Amino acid sequence: xxxxxxxxxxxxxxILARQGIAVIDAPAQTCCGALHAHAGEREDSRALxxxxxxxxxxxxxxxxxxxxxxxxxxxxxxxxxxxxxDAWAIRAAAFxxxxxxxxxxxAEVAGxxxxxxxxxxxxxxxxxxxxxxxxxxQPRELLSRVxxxxxxxxxxxxxxxxxxGSYNLTQPDYSDRLLGRKVDAILATGARAVVSANPGCMxxxxxxxxxxxxxxxxxxxxxxxxxxxx
Length: 230
What we know:
Layout: H1 6-18, H2 34-38, H3 42-59, E1 64-66, H4 69-76, H5 78-81, H6 89-98, E2 99-101, H7 102-109, E3 116-123, H8 127-130, H9 137-144, E4 147-151, H10 167-170, H11 172-189, E5 193-196, H12 199-211, E6 218-220, H13 221-229
Parallel strand pairs: 1-2, 3-4, 3-5, 5-6
């Protein structure tokens, strides 16, 4: 997310600040380890988890807000990942209990009206948000609070786009088939923008749309909210 969509982090910080939330950086944090886990590198994944737990303990925060669904799913799994590590199991469970997806958190703390943006949009459920974290209604609920935004549901919104962590690299043919179905569903809505909540999905969908000759913008939920509230 930081490399491909740094503006999403900035937008998330601005929205949280508007809600009166003090946004504190944890400078010692590192990669969540999701891609390591996907590749079967469990020990590397556990090592990164320990570093992150220590970094956020030092920051002494009430909640750990994540705007990348894949990272959030991995961070919420730290308790299970380190359950057999006597030195870290309790700390890992306490860490995981604080992790909240930005959509999940904002749906609870944000106001009923989140600005105005005249836009016809469709929402794509990232697998790591809908299936791994069980977060489906909150992004839609937040978008419904934007005056002037028309949300058009696409067919099979929660079917994988083919990115799936590293799946698009390890199984490119199957990944492309899934992407083709997703692009078909998006274009069939007639929407003027696609909204999602995970950088892997956003990169994959944007690539699929551009290959079809479509310049449809692909936005994160917090980018939409930030524009509406600005």
